[in-house]
Design a protein that fits this description.
About 20% of the residues lie in helices and about 20% in strands. It has 7 helices and 13 strands.
Amino acid sequence: MEKGSSVEDDRAFALLRHENIDKRWSPCSDPTTNAGDILRAAPDKDPGHHSNKHLFHQLITDPSLAKISAKRVGERGVQIVLPGSKPPGRVLATCLDVLVKSEREPVERFFSTFLETASGEPSKPPKLTFASGHSFANVGGNPGEHVLHINATPSLEAAWKKMGRRKENDDKNDGDESESLAAFANRFRANLVVEDAGDGTLNAFDELSWCGRCLRVGDEVEVLVNEPTIRCPSTRAEVPSEVVTDDDDDGATFLNAPVDVEGVVPDLDARVAFPELTASIFGREPKRLAEKGSYFGVYATVITGGVIREGDEVRLEESF
């Protein structure tokens, strides 16, 4: 990865809501630049933040996004895939080049009727967008300011034990979590997961003390930890535990199945389960996080590029 970048293809594409196309999209400008302009941070936002993510479809507003996967195709293409289907990874729609209208249309039509808050009319689809060097996320909205979201396994284990979804109405339930640790961890969509080296030196929520300091990852990459990650309610969206499909319905049973957005949800419970956690946000005096929201994990910016490999040692360095 390069300076100011994240993992390849992370949040590279987004769907601009149909009602915002006429108001926000400039058909005469470079499409990749135009998408970046829409994301541009407001003057009162922290560095690297932007305020226009709500103009695009998100998991928080359209939880059915949790049912599908996306794969990069070529330089500017994307393929929408149904995981766990027959055959596995059945393709639902493909765009080979997001800058070509005829190539975008199959993906845009698919999402016009698939998403909860879309128009519901194929003639009024959202616009598939791609902003080179940008990130469609809560932070890193400007070129070269993409971030890594980092989780630590001791924190994941502690949160899972307190906040993991449990079986309901089961007489045999003895209190064990019905949601696996791996499934719980996947809710937070980390780019990088740091494990204890086996000597017990990494404890739950130690990563919050890294804010304002640098981490050396492997022999090449250095990242600056900026702030704790405030949790979006998108972590409440849940894919059905089993994909129900057969050769006749072509996956419709799965695609039309309701998405579970109820129950114990990590984004709302973190502040209650761990109310005393403190951290510095963009170098400010450390604050009690529960007073500001629910936080889990940390955001970091790559300041020295290179290759990160599974199993690389992570070393905490002096303050930046």
